[in-house]
Amino acid sequence: MKTSLKTNIIVDLAMFLSMVVVSVSGIVIKIIAPLRRLAYESWVRDVAYWIVGDSRRLWSKIHLWSGVVMLLLLVLHIVLHWQTIDGFVRKHIKSRAWRGVLYVVLFLLLLLSVIPWVWAF
């Protein structure tokens, strides 16, 4: 499948933005939100409350759904670049059997990253 440069840039940019959202929401959930309860300085609690507010559940939903979007975009990215990936593997792994093993391992890793999402819903 031949894809245009514009399509690749859009997919890669969207994947990058979803990665940023996952990272920021993870930091808010794990580091900033607990500061509201643990901070000894009132200004730290105020800043944490300003960022998180009463919406820890909202941040958790943002984290979950941006992760889903990132995973779907990753799968799309792999599909769009499959010819390049396959060409690289064929060039460096001459044995058809070893290529098959590699593809099975990669597929299993993909399943390991997708299966937990089934229980999230």
Describe this structure in words.
The protein is mainly α and 121 residues long. The protein contains five helices and no strands. The chain has helices at 5-38, 42-52, 56-80, 82-92, 96-120. Helix 1 packs antiparallel against helix 2 (42-52) and helix 1 packs antiparallel against helix 3 (56-80). The radius of gyration is 20 Å and the shape is elongated.
Q: How would you state the average pLDDT, rounded?
A: 83
Low-confidence stretches: none
Secondary structure class reads mainly alpha
Count the strands? 0
Q: Main beta sheet, described? A: none
Percentage of residues assigned to helices: over 70%
Rg from alpha-carbon coordinates: 20 Å
- The gross shape turns out to be elongated
Distance between the termini: 32 Å
Provide the succession of SSEs: HHHHH
SS strand fraction: under 5%
Note the total helix count.
5
Using brief descriptors, characterize the structure shown.
121 residues; mainly alpha; 88% helix
In short:
The protein has 5 helices and no strands. It is mainly alpha-helical and 121 residues long. Helix 1 runs antiparallel to helix 2 (42-52) and helix 1 runs antiparallel to helix 3.
Annotate the secondary structure layout.
Elements: H1 5-38, H2 42-52, H3 56-80, H4 82-92, H5 96-120
Helix pairs in contact: 1-2, 1-3
